[in-house]
Specification:
There is one protein chain. With 119 residues, the protein is mostly beta strands. The protein has a single domain, classed as Jelly Rolls. The chain contains 1 helix and 9 strands, in the order E-E-E-E-E-E-E-E-E-H. The chain has a 5-stranded antiparallel sheet, with no helix packed on it. The protein has a 4-stranded antiparallel sheet with strand order 3-8-5-6, with no helix packed on it. It starts with 12 loop residues before the first strand and ends in a 6-residue tail after the last helix. Residues 1-9 have low confidence and may be disordered.
Length: 119
């Protein structure tokens, strides 16, 4: 499933060895939304510029929200639904995905079968 963004984005993606990076850039006004979604694997988000409001459902099922200001990083566990709302113009972030610990299969197969944006 591909996310349809309601903002102009430079969605570059790079895979090297065990690391997969996805680069996003908001280019609209404050308040634009990167829609709610989940991932099949844990990942870390590096907030490079700007700030975001992150809305997510915690593991105990409660709706939560927090602000993050660049530069910073934060982990998002697999299966946690989350969305980003830009608090400033030109907010940029980089998502870094790693295969689960102990993954035995060929990496190409892993990246092809793993849905980074869960249904």
């Amino acid at each position: 499933m591909e996310i349809t963004h309601n903002f102009v984005a430079d969605n570059r993606e790079e895979k090297r060895g065990y690391i997969r990076m996805v680069y996003h850039r908001f280019e609209l006004q404050r308040g634009e939304v990167h829609p709610g979604h989940t991932h099949d694997i844990d990942h870390v988000t590096l907030l490079l510029t700007g700030s975001v409001l992150i809305k997510f459902k915690s593991k105990d099922g409660q709706q939560r929200a927090l602000y993050k200001y660049a530069p910073c990083h934060f982990w998002i566990d697999k299966d946690i639904e989350h969305e980003f709302i830009a608090s400033e113009n030109n907010t940029t972030w980089l998502c870094v995905f790693l295969p689960p610990e102990g993954y035995e299969k060929d990496l190409k197969e892993f990246w092809n079968e793993t849905n980074l944006y869960g249904d």
